[in-house]
Write a structure and sequence with these properties.
Number of strands: 20
Protein name: Replication protein A 70 kDa DNA-binding subunit A isoform X3
Distance between the termini: 76 Å
Keywords: DNA-binding
Structural class: alpha+beta
Organism: Nicotiana tabacum
Strand content: 25-35%
Radius of gyration: 27 Å
């Protein structure tokens, strides 16, 4: 600790009268032949200018790095070193145990992003610096002695072979972790050059992985098609794609439920619109209709049931939530589903799915975020600000949106700004 404020990485010092001993071979082969011990009796002099001039020392190259593809094979409790590009970051927040955490998305040049979590003082020392640097560049970090996090049971989570699941386990700092930002290693320069050459691709991913409240969306760098049979292997919170046929799960199911207009809390046993006092948001609000129903997805590996809600559910049925409520709850009639059936029958769709977080480790509910006819145009796409089903939101439920909406998300690199617009398009059948 005596030298903690003196030594700086990659600066030159003249050290005299340090203790030098041969390394101890009793417990195996040591890393070095000699061990230096620097204590209060050691003279340490910073060298700013070498006189007479000498050839500079060669840049450091001695790194023992673990490739991103090998994280899942690291044994429990082991610490390893990682060289990575920092792509995105979230503001610090609090974990369930009350400790501060901050999540980052890091990646190598093999396009395998992984979550990296910093805790407590590491946020103050390194996290805030990285968050500031991300406003103008993609920094390179050398994180030494990091590890895979342990689950609440104390065991390191088992990793699936699909790399996208690393988002949910990822990496975390340990007490002995050190993080060097933009280190002067040749390996770091190679990674920095790759990042500069692919900057537009990295910017696009940064925008895709940023939520509407600056939260991180842990999505694959490149779209990964998951067979339905492997959906169980996806962890809660995972976003992924499947190619499948789509059908209404049951034509006699409820296509509309009533929800609080303010917090979106569902009241599935209510059937009439009215004013009421919501005990969830603790104020007088309205029960309003919300379009929600189940769909069956089928591919060659199997089938599963998913939920589709709100505007993109309305687009599928060619009806607004209010129209569905009037037909089903007021007139007690049956919905006209011919156009929806025609829209879905005999087609293969590319479907974006999110597996929701659940309590008590139950099977996660699947929600459709978007689906596209592979042979045609967009059928429905979720707005960038949509909230998950069953995950309360303070946004009010508004009437169905127009055919085209703009949901800008701005990120800045250098002096430029980049805007992302999400559109919802649907082409009704000709006889509609």
């Amino acid at each position: 600790m005596h030298f903690a404020d003196l030594f700086r990485p990659f600066h030159t010092y003249l050290m005299s009268v340090a203790q030098v001993k041969e390394s101890n071979y009793m417990y195996g082969n040591p890393l070095n032949k000699f061990t230096w011990t620097i204590d209060r009796c050691t003279i340490v002099e910073p060298i700013e200018t070498v006189n007479p001039p000498e050839e500079p020392l060669p840049p450091p190259t001695r790194l023992n790095l673990t490739p991103f593809g090998n994280f899942e094979y690291q044994p429990e409790g082991s610490e390893f070193d990682v060289l990575a590009i920092v792509l995105n970051a979230s503001p610090s927040t609090y974990a369930s145990n009350g400790r501060r955490i901050q999540d980052f998305i890091i990646m190598d040049d093999h396009k395998k992003p992984t979550k990296f979590t910093l805790w407590e003082e590491f946020i103050d020392h390194d996290g805030n610096k990285l968050l500031e640097l991300l406003k103008k560049e993609y920094p390179i970090i050398l994180a030494k002695k990091v590890a895979r996090p342990k689950s609440s049971s104390g065991k390191t989570p088992q990793m699936h072979t699909r790399w996208s699941n690393k988002f949910n386990t990822g990496l975390t700092n340990r007490f002995s972790t050190t993080i060097e930002i933009n280190p002067p290693y040749p390996q770091a320069n190679v990674l920095r050059t790759w990042a500069q050459q692919n900057e537009q691709m990295l910017i696009a991913y940064t925008m895709k992985s940023t939520g509407p409240t600056c939260s991180l969306l842990f999505v694959p760098f490149e779209e990964e098609i998951v067979p339905i049979a492997e959906i169980r292997q996806q962890n809660p919170g995972q976003i992924f794609y499947i190619h499948a046929e789509v059908a209404l799960q049951n034509e006699n199911q409820r296509f509309c439920i009533l929800a609080c207009s303010d917090c979106k809390q569902h009241f599935t046993r209510a059937f009439s619109r009215r004013k009421f006092y919501c005990t969830n948001c603790r104020q007088a609000t309205q029960l309003v209709p919300r379009c929600q129903f189940e769909m069956t997805l089928t591919d060659q590996s199997g089938s599963t049931t998913t939920t589709i809600v709100d505007e993109y559910a309305e687009k599928t049925l060619f009806l607004t939530s209010k129209e569905i409520y009037d037909i089903c709850n007021v007139k007690k009639g049956l919905l006209p589903l011919a156009n929806a059936q025609k829209l879905l029958t005999g087609k293969i769709f590319k479907i974006q799915i999110k597996k929701l977080f659940t309590r008590n480790n139950e099977a996660g509910k699947l929600v459709i975020l978007s689906f596209i006819d592979k042979s045609n145009s967009v059928v429905s796409q979720m707005p960038a600000t949509i909230k998950d089903v069953a995950e309360g939101s303070k946004q009010k439920i508004e009437p169905a949106a127009p055919e085209k909406q703009e949901h800008p998300h701005i990120t800045t690199k250098g002096n430029g700004s980049y805007k992302c617009n999400a559109e919802m398009k649907i082409s009704p059948p000709k006889n509609c």
